[in-house]
Amino acid sequence: MRWLENALRTAGLLLDKALLPEWQGSSDPRRDITLDQLLRMTSGLAFDETYSSYNSDITQMLFVQGDMAGFAASKPLIHPPGTVWHYSGGTSLILSRLLRNSFQSERDYLRFQRERLFDPLAMRSAVLEADDSGTLVAASFMYASARDWARLGLLFLQDGVWQGRRLLPEGWVAYTLTPASTAPDARYGAHMWLKIPDARDLGEAPMPEESYYMLGYDQQVVAVVPSRDLVLVRLSLSHDKDLSELARNLAAIVSAFPAKRSE
Asked: What pTM was computed for the model?
């Protein structure tokens, strides 16, 4: 974690003060929220992620609020930071605002994802939308072809290195794959899903234990399977929220590929 702290300080987000101006009051318990807790979804902030309700936080944030990060950051603390895991799209917007605050200009911020990630990976179809305030909507609204999503998965499979060039900080992939201590069944790392429900009840073998996932709202997925040297992308839409069906389908494909030979 030392490199993460150094990167935070370099960006001007010092660890000895609140991450956001609206959290800086001496009596505001949100001033104790850390970057690591935001990345691991353990901030303790209230946020209703129910997509089926018009009045839920996630629906209001994505489709009503002009300043999505400001809306998410305004939520009260309902658990001490670091004690409870709760998935929150609002947390991703707060992180995007923190990233925005680290840049000297809006131009540099808006060009960052293309210059530092999309272009080096040749992700030519990728588009990440911004909200009305200019903050990139990190929780949603990224569009890309299946091949371009696969390139992103391959970057993680290769430990953040692409064609000999390191794009992600050394240690970042390992950090994202370290389970949040309070996540049920060690299912979540740092903005990365580490498990989906297995499909033993459906008669299929589960996914390999070391697999990890970028999961979309309607079962879109980028699955990375290191033991098979494999990246799978599924962009079709399913309204069924039972992910065991997704696990069964992925496992059937993975089983057709041989395990990678030991070096």
From this structure: 0.90
